[in-house]
Amino acid sequence: MLPFLGPYLWAWPVLERQNPAVKSAASLSLWDKHFREGRRSLKTLAQNIEFQCESIQVSPLIRHTEDDLLSFLEPVQYLEKNSYEPVDGWLKPRNWQWDWPMDPTWAPPDTKCDMCKATPCDCISTLPKNRYRILYYGAKGRGIQARASSPGGLAFEKDQYIGELTGKLVPPDTYDNSMTINLNRSDIDEEPVVCQVYCQDQGNWVRLVNHSCKPCARLVAKIVSGKAGVMLQATQDIYDGAEVTVNYGRGHFGNNDCLCEVCKG
Ligand SMILES: [Zn+2]
Ligand SMILES: [Zn+2]
């Protein structure tokens, strides 16, 4: 998931040349507004502004409608927590013991937290803050760089939880794309997939973590502070300046070459 391989915001001037429709006053004023937000988003203190076009492969060769172009310029909605709304026809997961329909990440109050092994707790609010930067990593697009309190210092210890991937909760098998991850529940018999976390147009910085064939972190389903979620966890010590990466899994890149540092040397 989370690849940012497109030509990003900078594709806009090309799109604009090819699509006279976007020169309407409404388009230009929206563009102006988003351009200003985009400039802010490149500053480390305003990391939470991203645009739809940054996670979509926008080809300058395709003639897009004005609606499409404007949707590419919509900011991604930043989520502190997963968003859940009941959906008609969302089947109760296998071995689900509680009321249904309900938020599939809900866990009974006596469920042990995977971070502190206790209950109740507030671990979810103790995840590291301001320990990352969003950077451009060439052809890979945006990625996440670890940041420590001192240059070269230790940013994350092995096994430390770095953050939670947030997005919109949707029924299992809704999407089959790189912006979606299945969430299974280890506290339920046979560990069923209870939902997918879909982070195309809503989510947080964790969705920007790039793939590596030799990653230093992983995305893993855990229960933290009474809620199931997809956690980003360090699999080795990660130092200041290192890129935080995970393995997206086999077959992710299809016929495209992997752009990671291992494959590109
Ligand atoms: Zn805890
Ligand atoms: Zn690779």
UniProtKB/TrEMBL annotation:
A family per Pfam: SET
PROSITE patterns with a match to the protein in the record? SET
SET domain: residues covered: 20-249
Question: Record's InterPro entries?
Answer: SET_dom, SET_dom_sf
Q: Which domain of life is it from?
A: Eukaryota
Which protein, by its recorded name, is this? SET domain-containing protein
Q: List the taxonomic lineage.
A: Eukaryota, Fungi, Dikarya, Ascomycota, Pezizomycotina
